[in-house]
Specification:
The chain is α+β, with helices and mostly antiparallel strands and 297 residues long. It folds into two domains: 113 residues, Probable inorganic polyphosphate/atp-NAD kinase, domain 1 (Rossmann fold, 3-Layer(aba) Sandwich), CATH 3.40.50.10330; 155 residues, Tumour Suppressor Smad4 (Sandwich). A six-stranded antiparallel sheet has the order 7-6-19-16-9-10. A six-stranded antiparallel sheet has the order 15-14-11-8-17-18, with helices on one face. A four-stranded parallel sheet has the order 2-1-3-4, with helices on both faces.
Length: 297
């Protein structure tokens, strides 16, 4: 029987994943596969365990958790021949939406084991961030930073929603960001640099981005302020944000995002985790990430 390691974040999804281990193991045995459980205990373990899987020559490793877990495991696998398959287990698991991975995780085992591997391109910043999905700055980065500071991210989508409401009623000014690409300079209140199309779930913030092709799609809301941000967020959820007059989009292979105000301490976020602080430069990492794409049907 083939053995495949599963790198599991036991705190993802509110800690419920451990209860579902037997169901996943049973699903794998139906395909003559035994799952080996490798649990993370602290930040950085996902990268260490991913590197271990590559060093030991495993052709496939499964990452079970949320986008933070996927990001860590990917760091350990970049440039290797070991493919990463993602099992949805976090509050949103956006990469699983991007790759068309079935939900729940027990339904994903079969399609992933029957699937094929493709070389995915990822971004790397001058801060050594690895970007699988997106890097963004502006109001959403402020929300994510506050959610993590208040530990609201542990409450999943509800916690983030609570923090969005808090931010929209606060009186402090929202940040302004400047985006530089080969095409020129744009300023605004919200900038999303997409390596993939999905953002915050199945929502297609940067629909022109393709994780299997080099380059990024940049979407910038040029308007600033809470009413504009709220309108943009609503339009994004409806798939109509690119129709707005205050939105610009472009393709690039290198992008710089910086605060408009000199010396301003503004966060940005990578794949849903907050990072301090702008400015940041993002380029395509020359090393591919092998990714397991689920079989269809």
């Amino acid at each position: 029987m083939t053995s495949i390691p599963v790198i599991l974040n036991p705190t993802a999804g509110g800690g419920r994943l451990l209860r579902h281990q037997p169901r996943l193991s049973a699903a794998a045995r139906a395909h003559d596969v035994e799952l080996a459980w490798w649990l993370t205990e602290q930040r950085g373990d996902g990268e260490r365990l991913g590197r271990r899987a590559a060093t030991e020559g495993h052709p496939l490793v499964l990452a079970w958790g949320g986008d933070g877990t996927y990001n860590e495991v990917a760091r350990g696998l970049l440039g290797s021949s070991t493919a990463m398959g993602v099992l949805p287990g976090g509050s949103t698991s956006v990469l699983a939406y991007e790759l068309g991975v079935p939900r729940p995780a027990s339904r994903a085992i079969g399609p992933l084991l029957r699937g094929g591997d493709r070389a995915m391109r990822v971004g790397r910043s001058d801060h050594e961030d690895v970007v699988l999905l997106m890097l963004s700055a502006g109001v959403d980065a402020v929300v994510v930073e506050e959610a993590f500071r208040r530990r609201r991210h542990n409450d999943g989508k509800t916690g983030i929603a609570v923090q969005v409401v808090r931010e929209l009623v606060r009186r402090r000014p929202l940040p302004r960001v400047r985006v530089r690409t080969a095409a020129g300079v744009v300023e605004g209140g919200w900038a999303i640099v997409g390596n993939a199309g999905c953002y915050g779930g199945p929502f297609r913030a940067t629909p022109g981005a393709d994780p299997f092709a080099p380059g990024f799609e940049v979407v910038v809301q040029t308007a600033v302020g809470r009413p504009s941000a709220a309108a943009f967020a609503l339009a994004l959820g409806l798939g109509r944000h690119l129709r707005r007059r205050d939105v610009q989009r472009q393709r690039c292979e290198r992008v710089v995002v910086e605060p408009v105000a000199d010396g301003a301490q503004q966060p940005y976020q990578v794949d849903g985790d907050p990072v301090m602080a702008l400015p940041v430069t993002l380029e395509v990492d020359p090393r591919p990430l092998m990714i397991r794409v689920p079989a269809v049907g």
